[in-house]
Specification:
single chain; mainly alpha; 17 helices; 0% strand; globular
Length: 388
């Protein structure tokens, strides 16, 4: 039973990644057909992110009431319906409507599955699952690119992804009984008394620092991917094509790093891998900071990507150990929410600095955020150790 559920979770993580990169890939065609400004994608992205943050905060309440399986089923169903809605939208205003369930579904299922894996499976699977998310994120643009040359091709691409998501919906519906048996057997959240009172997670030692770690990490990862190419072109003086290839290697470093960390987790403790990853991130920042030729400094992006690999899944998997199983779902949801807030606010913040002529501060910005992750993560370990 545990193996069947694990296979389903792997499939769900691929489906989580599929919609994440669709809008950016299809938007150059979509905005022309719908006759909206290029900046309209930013508004859609904000709507999706807002829904994701909201559902991440509420995921603990929903899961305690309905169970992980039901929340996952409904969330993936919402995502599938939203993708179908995108493919049928006659105008930009109609696109904004399915953007709401797309964000709500993504946030809830992300928090639900991450907590379920942290409670019931080894850290190796947490790394591999996030590697599979990367496969989904890479597959989305590849699938939709097949249709973009055709008339209404982006709509056909969205309907194809909808078909894949809906197939997972049917699988989840047919296996709901397995989730219930698994959760009843292991008493997920069983230590929590049914008092009806909300968990006061703000009073948990280290909770605020844990939120800060996720805020800084997600902001750093997205900032590196969004502004790295501009930094290489403007500061290092290389061509846009070469810069784009190095940024693709940054994402490749994250994906391959998580695949390798799944094996390393068999021999090394989770916290050791997180610290090692953060050390490699620091090395990547130094490569970018030092006044070295472009050919020498550009591998700093690969190092930063490899360093990022174990940090996010590692911190997620530490949640039950740090805060207890009875509060892990609430903490998981809020951690994910603060991560989304960081990825929403910090890259535009650096964008303002870049527009003002401070693009050279890019490595310092990454270094500052990496330092914030290290200090906050170590602070959580100190505070939770005192409590235990």
């Amino acid at each position: 039973m545990a193996t069947i559920l694990l296979i389903i979770i792997y499939l769900a993580f691929i489906s989580l990644g599929l919609p994440d990169s669709l809008l950016g890939s299809a938007w150059p065609v979509m905005n022309q057909e719908l006759q909206v400004p290029l900046s309209g994608a930013g508004m859609l992205s904000m709507i999706v992110t807002g829904g994701t943050i909201l559902s991440s905060f509420l995921s603990g309440v929903w899961i305690r009431r309905f169970g992980t399986g039901m929340v996952t089923f409904v969330s993936v169903l919402m995502t599938a319906v939203a993708l179908l809605g995108f493919s049928l939208a006659p105008s930009f205003l109609w696109l904004c409507i399915p953007a709401v369930p797309l964000g709500l579904g993504a946030g809830a299922v992300d928090a639900a599955l991450n907590n379920f894996v942290a409670l019931h499976y080894k850290v190796s699977h947490m790394n591999w699952l996030h590697c599979f998310w990367g496969l989904g994120a890479m597959s989305g643009p590849m699938i939709i690119s097949v249709f973009l040359q055709e008339e209404n091709g982006w709509r056909k691409g969205y309907r194809t992804i909808f078909g894949i998501q809906f197939a997972l919906v049917l699988i989840l519906f047919g296996t709901l009984f397995l989730w219930k048996k698994f959760e009843n057997k292991d008493m997920v959240g069983g230590d929590e008394k049914p008092t009806g009172e909300k968990i006061r997670i703000l009073k948990l030692p280290g909770a605020v620092l844990a939120w800060l770690a996720f805020f800084c990490y997600c902001g750093a990862e997205l900032t590196a991917g969004l502004w790295g190419s501009s930094y290489l072109v403007k500061v290092k003086g290389i061509s846009a094509g070469t810069a784009a290839r190095w940024i693709s290697l940054f994402y490749l470093g994250i994906t391959l790093g998580r695949f390798l960390c799944g094996f390393l987790a068999v021999r090394f403790q989770n916290r050791s891998l997180v610290r090692l990853g953060l050390g490699v991130c620091l090395a990547g920042c130094l490569f970018l900071l030092l006044p070295l030729p472009a050919a020498v400094s550009m591998p700093g992006f690969v190092l930063f990507g490899l360093g990022c690999a174990p940090v996010f899944p590692g911190l997620l998997h530490e949640t039950p150990a740090r805060f207890g199983k009875e509060t892990s779902q609430a903490m998981m949801g809020t951690q994910m929410a603060f991560g989304y807030i960081g990825s929403t606010l910090l890259p535009p913040l650096f964008g303002l600095a870049a527009q003002a002529g401070f693009i050279r501060l890019f490595p310092w910005f990454l270094l500052l955020l990496t330092g914030g992750i290290i200090l906050s993560s170590e602070g959580v370990d100190v505070r939770t150790a005192r409590r235990q």
